[in-house]
Amino acid sequence: MTQADEMTIAPMSDPTWRALVSGEKQPAYRCLALRILMIRIRVEYDRDASALQALIRELRDFFVANLRFAAPDYQSIFRETAR
Fold first, then answer.
1. Cβ partners under 8 Å of residue 4, min gap 6
2. Read out DSSP for 6-24?
């Protein structure tokens, strides 16, 4: 069992998701796929802030589906939430 297998992804209601999507929080990402996704998400949010919940869902779904290689980024973003 890997460390990623033991991690719980924060719920959509966690304010960190909003901070990431809005650009309030801008960590350095190791995962190239995550960097590309975040560029697109930020552009979409800047274009239409009402899409916030859909963008949060997309970002959270990325971590759920790709935690095996995105775990280091998740842990650095959600230090207090990662288990």
1. 67, 68, 71
2. G--PPPTTSHHHHHHHHTS
pTM beyond 0.70: the answer is yes
Q: Which DSSP string do the residues of the chain spell out, in sequence order? A: --TGGG--PPPTTSHHHHHHHHTSS-PPPS-HHHHHHHHHHHHHHHH-GGGHHHHHHHHHHHHHHHHHHHHHHHHHH-TTT--
Structure tokens at 83: 């288990």
Per domain, the residue ranges of the chain are 15-77
For the record, the structure tokens of 22 come out as: 């809005």
* Segment 70-81, tens digit of pLDDT: 999 999 999 854
